Write a sequence for this structure.
């Protein structure tokens, strides 16, 4: 049996799959795709996933894309060390979280990461012209690429950027509410819901935005993150794959943006 994962250190959805693999104690082989260097556009990788995004799982030659689909597949193919709850209702609750992550939180995370961090790096390195930028990501489509350009040029002032950050923050509040009666997001046990949210809260921490839950703002989220980080699976899923240089860059960039984020959210 072979499990191969195409992934990247700063990708939240790839971290989700690494976390699920670790929790299910499944050994896997790494294929590192440096999406910051454009390796996702390599024709060999595009043949695996025409959307040119990580993660991609290959199980005994079968290709599976989409991080949540991959985690569900792992659960069904390898039922031991379950990450989904046993009852239909709790499974539905988990899926409400994973759907929200896929549909709303992940796009908000892309916007936030660009306006808080990537823009500073790209502008420092020289963003080039709009036409060059468009040509660099033809597969994304003109509309998505134009939006990204605005994130880079205008940061939090870009159309829709502030709303994405408010949406992100609203998920922290939803988590705070859900954690009212339990240590974990669904039911009494750690589950796929926690696996799905962990990369997104951890991303905020990586961007030096811990002020969103610290100093008593969202104490249950703070405690939940500490519990997630205390799991032996956290380091191999998250820390070991984020290159130190990138971690430093994200933290430094994030610190620069914190005053603006803070004032936007009234923290
Ligand atoms: N819905 C997809 C999203 C995949 C995705 O957006 N991957 C990002 C990293 S988190 C990526 O590979 N981006 C490449 C790029 O920006 O060109 C999933 O959950 O797997």
């Amino acid at each position: 049996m072979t499990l191969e994962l195409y992934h990247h250190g700063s990708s939240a959805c790839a971290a989700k799959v690494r976390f699920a693999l670790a929790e299910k104690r499944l050994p896997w082989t790494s294929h590192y795709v440096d999406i910051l260097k454009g390796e996702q556009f390599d024709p060999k990788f595009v043949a695996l996933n025409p959307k040119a995004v990580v993660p991609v799982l290959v199980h005994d030659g079968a290709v599976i894309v989409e991080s949540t689909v991959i985690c569900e597949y792992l659960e069904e193919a390898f039922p031991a060390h379950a990450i989904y709850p046993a009852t239909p209702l709790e499974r539905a609750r988990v899926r409400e979280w994973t759907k929200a992550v896929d549909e709303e939180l992940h796009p908000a995370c892309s916007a936030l990461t660009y306006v808080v961090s990537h823009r500073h790096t790209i502008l420092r390195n020289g963003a080039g012209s709009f036409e060059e930028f468009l040509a660099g990501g033809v597969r994304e489509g003109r509309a998505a690429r134009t939006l990204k350009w605005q994130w880079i040029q205008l940061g939090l002032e870009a159309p829709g950027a502030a709303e994405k950050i408010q949406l992100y923050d609203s998920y922290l509040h939803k988590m705070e509410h859900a954690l009212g009666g339990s240590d974990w997001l669904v039911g009494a046990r750690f589950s796929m819901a926690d696996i799905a949210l962990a990369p997104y809260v951890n991303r905020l921490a990586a961007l030096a935005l811990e002020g969103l839950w610290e100093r008593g703002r969202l104490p249950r989220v703070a405690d939940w993150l500490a519990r997630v980080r205390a799991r032996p699976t956290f380091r191999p899923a998250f820390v070991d794959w984020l290159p130190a240089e990138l971690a430093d860059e994200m933290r430094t960039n994030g610190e620069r943006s914190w005053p603006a984020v803070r004032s936007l959210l009234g923290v």
